[in-house]
Amino acid sequence: KVLPAIQAAVARGVELVGDIELFARALPPGQRVLAVTGSNGKSTVSALTGELVRAAGLSAAVIGNIGEPVLDALAEHEDGTRWPDVFVLELSSFQLETTTGLRPIAATVLNVTENHLDRYSGIDDYAAARMLPGSRVAARSCSRLTSSRSSANITR
Hints:
Elements lengths: L3 H8 L7 H8 L5 E6 L4 H14 L4 E5 L5 H7 L9 E5 L2 H4 L9 E4 L13 H9 L12 E3 L6 E3 L1
Parallel strand pairs: 1-3, 1-4, 2-3
Antiparallel strand pairs: 5-6
């Protein structure tokens, strides 16, 4: 649930910006980002994706919810240090709530199960935080999600 003070600020037009949004805004043009989100398996898939990128001969930094914070990764490159060829970014639903400008070259929503229902009004609200259709993470590789409840399907 959102704190009343934050709700009031947003209602007055104050932009709520999180670390992922700051990261997205600071990236140099053309920087490749792969995004991974979902209820379960994010760290495994993010780490594996980083290894696959490296096996393809590219440099990769696996960051975000998995370990190294995104703003620390940015700070490492402020001095002109070469950027990795690809950032593999693990994203939680909480991080995605304040993200509007991230444009990964590819993204996936691994799954959506009934997690964090103390924060979200239900499975559909939680799935919406993961999908963010249109303006946020463009889950190009994901055309359909099925929750742990067989009757709840979310189609993009």
